[in-house]
Amino acid sequence: MLRRQQQKFKGMIPRGFGGPKLAILAAIVLVALWAVNGFYKVQPNQQGIELVFGKYNGIPTEAGLHWNWPSPVGEVFRPDVTRENRIEVGFRSGADSRSGSGRDVPEESNMITGDENIIDIDFVVFWRIRTAGDFLFNLQNPEQTVKVSAEAVMRDIIGNTRIQDALTERRGQIQAAAQQQLQQLVDEYGAGIEIRSVQLDQVDPPTQVIDAFNEVQRARQDLERLKNEAEAYRNDVVPRARGEAAQLTEGADAYRQEVVNRAQGDANRFNSVYEAYVQSKDVTTQRIYLETLEDILGNVNKVIIDKDSGGNGVVPYLPLPEVQSRMNNSRSTVAPSTQKGGN
Hints:
alpha+beta; 4-stranded antiparallel sheet
């Protein structure tokens, strides 16, 4: 068979074209075929990394048609630099991550909080290749490095966070801090990776103690509710008590001012009377006597007896106040009977 193939090949070659010339032609054809294999195409979502004798020149090639020395002299890598890669820590979602079913990995998810509680955290790291050369040659397994670094960073953050904060209002802060610290760590490694985001998937107490933890949470909620009710009651009672106290204080101040002013008025009046008495004792004494009698006898019924009149010494008089009071009493008793007769 080999002899027949040689004879067939010799029959295709023109006469007089043999020996060294044939070897040169064959070598040229082989070199041309080998050189054609050096052409390669870089897609828009890729970066081309050219190696010559295993050395990278440090300049990635952009999208388009390029040429590099074929194997075994050269080699070309074309990693996808736009694909969003996903690393799961604490769980494995399986082939379909959207199904919601997954397997828990407790050795990755169980962490100690700052107040010495155990918490189960599942999170996802999204990353992308930023520098293809660093990604390919600086680390032996970049994806595993990102996973281990993300777990270490998350444990450090959770170790400085209270469990209540991690379960409630600090989830966003934990995600932002984890993304920032993880980016700094992979940059120190020279991984050529951009951390797009860190998302907390599930943050819960361990399943063994979740019922007791929920009971504690309900007790804390009741405590907060009672505290809020007490605060509301205090905010209602204290201002009212302060208002009543201010009212009593103002009333006491007003009474004090009234008493002081009245005392000062009495003192000033006494001083003025005393000064008048010093200047004219007889007139002042007579005036004081008359004013005193006026105050004493002003509101009482009086019967005046003139001892200097003739007769028995008793002046007949008409008791006008008694007559007037009797007339008023008779009117009040007659008026209802008259009204009844008219009806």
